[in-house]
Write a structure and sequence with these properties.
Layout lengths: L2 H14 L11 E7 L6 H17 L3 E2 L2 E9 L5 H13 L5 E4 L3 H14 L3 E3 L14 E3 L4 H14 L4 E7 L2 H16 L3 E8 L7 H9 L4 E5 L4 H12 L8 E4 L5 H7 L7 E4 L8 H13 L7 H19 L6 H9 L2 E4 L2 E5 L6 E13 L2 E13 L7
Parallel strand pairs: 1-3, 1-4, 4-5, 5-6, 7-8, 7-9, 9-10, 10-11
Antiparallel strand pairs: 2-3, 11-14, 12-13, 13-14, 14-15
Length: 390
């Protein structure tokens, strides 16, 4: 890590640290890692809003202990920098818990550090199945691509879709999504008629869309990172006549609430399989949305902010189980037994994988007043991480 980057990270961290020297000496310290600058900074904003909204909802204390949140800016996928920041949090700041993590390589890089320090680390986002296998101190409150893809592939096969083209961005998560779809869809009797991997720098999706159109597919399963790639792919999907030709759009996080309103009418009718919708009809979700808005009126209720909210719930219960004392092994055992009503629905931590088991829903974009929403139309029920061991 360069001196410049170290100083930049230190400045950002200082600006984002919640609390001051006035905090009680026995405050529980929680380090949160995420991108607070650069093109992925919205994840950091949403982590911060979700985490702080949960702390505020508990009166600012967990199990009677003051809570100090210490933020560190990882930028984008940067394993080396993330490792350095975690070393600082563990040694200098002496944090009791860690949370956050958007990118898989960053999470993988810190696994040896948290294992050595016996520091429970709750993943708010990074979605590759194998992460929790890298350290016994990892827990996850987000999702994995296998978890949300497998039930979608099963649904497609049961609903008369026999031929599908896959179109994914050519990097780790995209390949993970493609692998999950192929494994489950072919097992269910379907055929993948075209497999397309699109370079990360793709701006013109037209040629790939034409390949899908010519493939004879009844649907396209796609995986794209949020932001411009999502918008560009959907625009091309519509402009090149795939929707009119009856080629269904099937995906997972591509209709995320952070981008949803930007699509306009182009998103209407598009189906995704996911574990959270801001339109989920429950009191727990209404409570979450109200707390989030109170904390930050511009924050979006989506998978990143709910991952942080639920991640802080898990940390709170670990603090209660250890009476606020640093005891990673005891905290971890308590977390493995957790069950609660999340804004997304009923959830629990799988004691073997330390990954969240949750309901996954088929969602369809529709209008509710002037807003686009992901309406849940099928509840696929409890889903574990189908990708572990694959």
């Amino acid at each position: 890590m360069s001196l410049f980057n170290w100083r930049r990270a230190a400045v950002v961290a200082a600006a984002l640290t919640v609390g001051s020297a006035a905090l009680a000496a026995d405050a529980v310290k929680i380090g949160i890692l995420g991108p607070f600058s650069g093109p992925f900074a919205h994840y950091g904003v949403l982590f911060k809003a979700g985490a702080e909204a949960y702390v505020a909802s508990q009166g600012g204390k967990f199990a009677g202990k003051e809570v100090e949140l210490i933020y560190r800016d990882t930028g984008g996928p940067n394993p080396g920098q993330t490792k350095t920041l975690v070393q600082e949090l563990l040694v200098k700041d002496k944090v009791d818990y860690l949370g956050g993590l958007v990118f898989t390589p960053n999470a993988m890089a810190i696994a040896p550090l948290i294992t050595q320090a016996k520091t429970p680390t709750v993943i708010f986002n990074a979605a590759t199945s194998s992460i929790t296998e890298k350290s016994p101190y990892f827990l996850r409150t987000s999702y994995t691509l296998w978890q949300v893809t497998v039930p979608l592939a099963q649904w497609a096969a049961k609903n008369g879709i026999t031929k599908v083209a896959t179109a994914v961005m050519d990097y780790g998560p995209g390949i993970d999504a493609e692998t999950a779809w192929k494994a489950e869809f072919t097992k269910s009797g379907g055929t993948v008629v075209e497999s397309i991997r699109m370079p990360m720098a793709t701006n013109d999706f037209g040629p790939f869309i034409q390949r899908i159109k010519a493939s004879g597919a009844q649907a396209v399963y796609t995986f794209l990172p949020g932001g411009p790639p999502n918008l560009g792919f959907v625009k091309s999907y519509n402009e090149n006549g795939l929707a009119k030709a009856g080629i269904q759009f099937l995906a997972t996080a591509e209709m995320d609430e952070f981008d949803l309103q930007k699509f306009g009418d182009a998103a209407l009718g598009l189906k995704t399989s996911f574990h959270y919708s801001a339109a989920h009809d429950s009191q727990a979700n209404r409570t979450f949305i109200a707390a989030l808005a109170k904390q930050d009126k511009n924050a979006v209720a989506n998978y990143a902010s709910v991952g942080a909210w639920d991640g802080m719930h898990v940390i709170e219960k670990m603090i209660a189980a250890t009476d606020g004392k640093k005891n990673g092994a005891k905290a971890l055992e308590a977390a493995k037994a957790l069950k609660w009503e999340s804004p997304r629905g009923p959830v629990h931590i799988d004691p073997q994988t330390r990954h969240i088991t949750q309901h996954v829903y088929l969602r369809e974009v529709e209008r509710a007043g002037n807003e686009l929403v992901n309406k849940e139309i099928v509840d696929f029920g409890d889903q574990t991480d189908h990708g572990l061991g694959k």
